[in-house]
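Entry 14. Two folds queued back to back today. First construct below, sequence then structure tokens.
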Amino acid sequence: MAQSDAASKIGPDGPEEAEPSRDQPGSSEGAAFAKTREALAGLGRALARLGRALHEEVPVAARRAGEKSGAAAIGAIERLGRTSNGKSDSVALAGRSASRWVKPRRGRTEDHRAEPKRPSGRRTILVRTVSAAALASLVLLVAVFAWALRDVPWDEIAEGSLKPVVVLETADGKPLVSQGPFQGSYAVRADFPPHLVEAVLAREDRRFYEHSGIDLRGIARAIYTNLGAGEVVQGGSTITQQLIKILYLERDRTWKRKIQEAVIAFWLEHKLGKDEILTRYLNNIYLGAGATGVPAAARIYFDKEVQELSIGESAMLAAIIRAPSQLNPLTNPEGARQQAELVLDAMVKGNRITSEEAKVARADFGKLQPTSPAIRSGSWFADWIMQDARELAGPYRGTIKVRTTMVPRLQAIADKVVADALRREGGKAGVSQAALVAMTPEGAVVAMVGGRDYTKSTFNRAFSAMRQPGSAFKLFVYYAALKRGLSPFDPVEDAPIEINGWSPENFGGGYSGVVSIAEAFARSLNAATVALAMEVGIDEVIASARELGIDAKLADTPSLALGSSEVNLLDLTGAYASVRAGRAPIEAWGIESLHAEGQPQAFRVGPSKEAVTDISQYRPDLVALLRLVVERGTGREADIGTLAAGKTGTSQNHRDAWFVGFTEPLIVGVWVGNDDETPMKDVTGGKLPARIWKNFMTAALAEGTPEQSGAQVAGSAPACNFRACARAYRSFRPDDCTFQPYYGPRRLCEK
């Protein structure tokens, strides 16, 4: 009866043969035949789907050749996932996502109780051959997927945009947009205005919210269009696929990458959802001019926050996604406008905006003038501080806003005075480069210029260049003398002196005999300075330099007194800041505070409140000596008509020239020279460097002090110094600035 019932079962497409029981003869052949039938069924359904996408009709018989091959392939992928060393979820999810394509027909059941029909010998051979081929194909498919997916960075994909994105800000909280690559704050989905999202979807993926990561209809449309045009004029990749290409996979067009892209696309759609995929895409797409992400492009091209973009601006940004280098609005505004017109047309056609809104946006194109923000000039400063910023941001995820000490107004003044001086005097003086550093008495760097032109050379001559300071080093000799009990009025002999065959000479020749220490310093007398250094001891001179913050290698030789050992401008300026402050060392710093996304408050980074050496008892004499240089000595060209103190410096054969000095609110160091160390044309520290110093200081003080400009904001953040706390406590945790005491719960570090 069971056999009769099974034989009489009729499905929608005709009689269906009963599946043999496992314990009946011929069951293996029957099972193999069933798997073969399933494999053919999956192929038929795949062909049918592609046919529908291409608007072609695939015969019904082809679709019904077998219905369970998709399930077999999916099962193989899921089994591969369960055995792929930690990647089970990823591959299994890909299989389950693919299962949406293959859905078994309802109303069909198999009667395992039915008696099997014994196949004939010829049919048995055919079944075994086809079964073996199907199983071999299945094994090959599994092997190909295993090979293609073995090196997919699943963990990295899961983290995605949570990786730290460091955003530098100026002292007044504005974005510090440097030359070169720039990525703004990570924006959440709600930050992007609706018309921007609609513009991007109209341009890149009209069916984004309808497909499952791969748009078969879009692929079919692209194939049809490209065949009609005879060339590739349209692509079929979705925003999900573009995101995968941008962040996770190599750009090579290989079968391996295509398999990876398809599986990851399904997995991302299941794992993240549409809104998160779109958010990551908008934050990471490259839009030209060094801008990564729409927030960065909004700042670079329009100097706006992303929330402030108009419909026209949004259309222009969407228009340049496909060719950001060729359609960069800064270099090709007309091309960008033409493409933006096409985006507006697509938005109207898709009912994303009204015709009236598009008309208003087109009218705005006439006055739309993309322009770089003025604060892009602080590039050397950004380069200098970025390494520390990334180190501090290490334990965090998401956007890390780093408030720096750079004051845009002072940075702009520094850029201008250096550029003007080199343009006006550089040629005739044989000077090709210059550097300038300006800081507050606490060591906060408010402006930095590292050379003549950042676009031609990013080398930072204010920080990375080690050069001989010449007489600017004499500060440490006279500081050592004051510590030995000498006073500015004590005598020192300026006369020929020979030490192991070396005889220092004064600039211009001749000697002055017995002079006061103050006169020797103001006139920068070399012979008198060396004699004084030998009296107090070279080791004491080195100790004094170390005390004021000089970390460079210093040679224990008599010529050290005249600046024969190399230092950098930043450290030397910091040493003069120590004199101005009356405590040492004053170390240059550029990060005020750090605020991580998701953290309730920012944490102060600098300056450190750790104990320093009190040099206030020597400060009046040192300041008097430095003022004498400006008023009556070698630095008279730096006189600004108010309190000013400083020291000139010129290395041997005029290879380097310096002026470092301070007023009440600012300490500024200037260096000029050539990268190849060729001599300048009689340039000394009292000439071109002193004039650059004067021009900067005059302009800087004309509009108020740095405090009035917004540089001092550290007091608004909790007192937690990352570096000081890390040195003090082994248990220090940067993400919340706490440490574990011997007893009780964790506590906030307040150093």
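Second construct, same run, same settings:
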Amino acid sequence: MTDIEIARNCKLKPIAQIAEQWGIPAAELELYGSYKAKVSTRPDMSARSKLVLVTAINPTSAGEGKTTVSIGLADALNLVGAKACLALREPSLGPVFGIKGGATGGGYSQIAPMEDINLHFTGDFHAITAANNLLCALVDNSIFQGNPLGIDPDRIVFNRTLDVNDRALRGVRVNSGVKGATEHAEHFNITAACEIMAILSLATDLDDLKARLGRILVAYTTDGKPIFAADLHAQDAMTILLKDAIKPNLVQTLGGTPAFVHCGPFANIAHGCNSVLATRLAMTYADYTVTEAGFGADLGAEKFFDVKCRTAGLHPDCVVLVATVRALKLHGGADKTNSKEEDLFALRKGLRNLNRHILNLRNVYRLPVVVAVNRFTDDTDVEIGVVRRAAMRLGASAVVCNVWGEGGKGAVRLAHKVIELCNQPNDFSFAYPLKGVSVEDKLRAIATKIYGAKDVEISPQAQDSLNRLASVAPVDDLPVVIAKTQYSFSDDPTLLGAPSNHVLHIRDIEYRGGAGFLVALAGNMLLMPGLSKTPNAVNMTIDSDGKIDGLY
């Protein structure tokens, strides 16, 4: 059966019943039908839940099942008597209709209702898009209405957004042919990469949200002075649009585990983590909180540790590193024409990618690691054995799981190992200090410690941006988010495995004052993806009864 057929065949409990079982007050639920709810409860910021991060090796274009493993692990923890909740990101319509598909897991390891979650859900992405574009409209209107702030139309740095992959919007002109208006260049970011998404992910309450929105840098004046959203008095109206979106969403797994699903920044072009509020809510009601960060550990995990954990004061207890034989063969140079012997050689060669991630997590962040080998039906026992032995040689546990086919039952051994590791002390640390080091040194620390690079090359454009930002805010005190390809430790998506001694090329640096970090654009990474030649959208169908097929 397909994922959508499996989900339809599983009977869900009313979400109010799930909430009651975990002690979430009924008065704090805002129901969106029978199976979805917003939760208004303020999280207990001192809750001592064990925090488990699920991350992965560098993936193939299809992904390696990180979300699926997260869901299966949470179900397995509950099966073995540990009280567990999930904290996951919301899917973006970009990948849903693009190439990667939805983000609700798969098989018997899904969050549900999967069709609703993968599509409009509770409207959070729409609210973020509206708040973002309201600010853009206020900027253009201020210019039109006599430009009292002296905004330079050619120096507007805050962009419009849309939750669709649309490469045509990477470069447009606005106000073209509009009488009395000033025409200027514009480009769109996808909603998952916009600053409002990052702000909502990191905000702790409405007051914090409003203050962060006011700190958004929107433009410069003709004499180079910065203009912020607060200068346009935009923050209250934007907060009004986001007043419901700030509340985490509650759904469930097919196994009945509560899942707080909230916000959805991508990890390759944004900071890749669900909201602080959702994570803290899960920690309030569970003894074990399972969360995930996007793409490979060089992207999502690094940003989870160095940005989210630092900002929110979180201390992770254990890391689950998802690996597949398929991805390791890819990193070893395998293709579809390989013989079994060539496949095995490619697998062994591809282990360098796994090894790099294990060493980063253990030596840089000083956390215990268990490798979850997400088994596919065509994986052989010999191949699985090769992966397990490689992990154990580096001091990491390795457990085979089959959560797609078995749900939580397929991750019981993984759950026992996670409990064991979570109850060991660790010396969690960051890849770089926040204070007392330059932006260049922070970039260099990530590139050399995490990516295996020998150095960072900052383009003249990036250096000019950094110099200009130094007059806007104390940028040396901010963490950095590197936007780069998810397929490689480098900024070159074709450089697979575990490359060393390469140079990380930073072409520009952008300021995210409301989110509280800098974004360094590496290589040719763009903040608005495009559709593939045959996107998922063209294979989807809906019948006269509203039944959807092709959504996964």
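Quick look at the second one. The mean pLDDT is 93. Residues 401 and 411 are 5 Å apart (CA to CA).
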